[in-house]
Amino acid sequence: MKIQSIVLILIACLICSCKTIVEKKDWRYFSEDINIDRFRAANEALGPPAEGEDRVVFMGNSITEAWPVLSPELFESGQYIARGVSGQTSPQMLLRFKTDVIDLQPSVVVILAGTNDIAQNTGYTPNDIVLENIEAMAELASYHDIEVILSSVIPAIDFPWKPGLNPAEKIKDLNQMIKSYAKSEGFIYLDYYSALVDSQGGLKVPEYTTATDLVHPNKAGYQVMEGLVTEAIDMALLKSVSSGIEVNSLFSDHMVIQRNDELLIWGEADPLEDISIQTTWGASATMTTGQDGKWIGKVNTADAGGPHKITISAKDEAIEISDVMIGEVWLASGQSNMQMPLKGWPPNDPIQNSEEEISKADYSNIRMFTAQMSYAVDPQDKISGVWKVCTPHTAKDFSATAYFFAKRLHDELGIPVGIIHSSWGGTVAEAWTSQEKLRTMGDFDEALDLLNQPENKQKVSDWYSRWETMAIPDTDDSWSQLEFYDDEMTKPLYNDRSWQEINLPARFDVYDGAELNGIFWFRKTFELEEPVQDYALEIGAIDDMDQTFINGVEVGSMTGSGKYNLKRSYKIPKSVLKKGKNTIVIKAVDTGGPGMISGMIMLQSEQGKSVDLSRTWRYIPIGEIANSAIYRYDSDNVDFTDRPSMLFVNQNTPSVLYNAMINPLIPYTIKGAIWYQGESNVGRAEQYEQLFPTMIRDWRARWGRDFPFYFVQLAPYGYTNTEDPTDDQSQKLRDAQRKSLSVKNTGMAVTLDVGNYKNIHPANKQDVGARLAGLALKNDYMRNITASGPLYQSHRKEGRQLILSFTSIGSGLASEDRLQGFEIAGDDRNYHRAEARVVNNEVIVYSTNVKDPTYVRYGWSDEGATSLFNKEGLPASSFTSEK
Fold this sequence. Notes:
By secondary structure, the chain is of the alpha+beta class. A hairpin with a 2-residue loop joins strand 35 and strand 36 (801-807).
């Protein structure tokens, strides 16, 4: 604890003993209602945490005190303990910190303080004194090996019990101070403020507060807070593991393992160290690490059930993995339609009935591990991510397709289901395939040769070895905590003359001829007359994330996934602005694909005055995302001419996603895989026809088992910008996917009926996930169901008619109204629309324009067709009979 804080407390206590003599004017008179013993009985009843229990204590005021009352679900298990006292200020919290936090021996403490200090509940308290009390609590916790989460103060624009204080700006200032302190000390900063604030600086009404004082959240507000705090707690618990033994992050609390199989567990420790694995279902194993410190062990798993524990020990050190469930484990991978979360990417890319689905997503036996997006030139053995139990607070960030897949399996099998989710939007199949397998095709040899040139690889190693590295964040909140000289770069007087110029809006991720993913700073000055009113900063979109500052004050941010296409609209209080020269600074993060600032950049006053902020800015890259890490440049004069030529590498470079997002998962035991990808390979259908089966065989060979592999066929979408149907390409890719069914133990979910021709991200993920699950239920869990729509098998000619046979017809072929979408052609391949009808579970097609038909096709366009189904309601796949 800082000496200054201790002195302040002692002085305060002495002064409080004679408060009747001295007029109560400032922060030192805070002893009223301190009641250190308030929770004594409850604390004694709790006792010390059980072995392996990760206890979390919430220290705070009335907002913390009311939390278990208004939203009790978070606290039902007893793992989370609320120690909030209404009206208390930070020095009062500090005085009871030992009894209500330290003595409870938690793994994590969540500190929410400052509201009542600003409200002057114990007299005037300067923000720097509030911060010192928060610092003292954090340092006490750290001394006792408790991980610390520091929370922002909840937004407020007035305190009804203390009118006239106008707290909005003080809250904003204090939050910035807390955030800066958290960054400097390595604590987790929890930003409730940004998630709950309205355009005036208060809680959103009535969304997040219906209290008469407009200061306390309602249940919806607490649910937003819960989504943030549970992510932060997961991060803190990972940080708290102090053992010298390391395991792949797949092996962590809440994991799901495959039932009645073998579980391989691997990690690192000291060289030639004896390692033992013990499980509560009775399986065990011992092994010795190699000279490189690596180890791998194997235990048999049991029937479905749990929760279990796994203990991994070496000498006097041990890792205990709790809440382990045994059930079914599936890998989910692909591009954006697999990545798309249950909350969607509003407003442009929603999920059907998203709010209702999230509110009902209370399945403790469904868990999902979401791998951090990363790519690498060489195969990696580590991956970042955590297992999360499915609740309405966590499910919103789950892959929607994978969630609906898991939900149907869980509902019908009645056992735990675990999903390992590893996907990246906009990516190509060759990026998910290993170099060795790609070499068998020959199509990608030139790119692979460049990746593997020893001279280039050494240059790459030399380049990255210059810079400080940091882990890629795995939560939305942790992205906002990335530190890239923020205090220095955001100062209005910072000298940016050496930076390059760029005209915005524009693409910004190509710098000195090098394309890179990473972190960029942008700066611009602008002139204002005397600011007598608030302004709004309007920006079309920033791909992917941003934190924006004016005159050194952060005025808004959008961090985390799914923000790349969202309009920015940040309120700028007049107090932030000044007459004459002002400085705007943007820290933009481009995680992959083209990084750009698009649309207008405009400062707009409440009375309609505007300042155009487009055209000339100064900018510089300050960090690079590559090789499963972030590299922070240590200078604003980086010589990019030193960067090796091979650094065109991005997430679509052949093999790099396999290296970083698949290889580290091997050999974790899985039942099978589901896949939703292909959009980014449209236009290369002939190649995909070979590439996709190659990737499937590659993964199976790496895992050493021919696991089932189920994939989603492309949905309708207008991939071309022309109205000429002969320009369409996606139907060819769909047919390449259909032909991939020749690979054994595969299945295809057809989505022609649930797509959106104007949106590449269809909102109906319920049917997609359910259809994938149907394939698994039929083929792997022996359910007597029809799991696929009709698939073209063959045709025969009878006169001027072609008669088509299909597999997967279920209880029979069916159609909606009349059959459409069929075309036939003679040997000249000149296709004409055909009349079609279902007769005896076959389809007869005919055209007066084709006297001698040879070929037939269905749904042969980007838009596809949705007229042929089986009686179970599953649509037929598009196809062509041409070889």
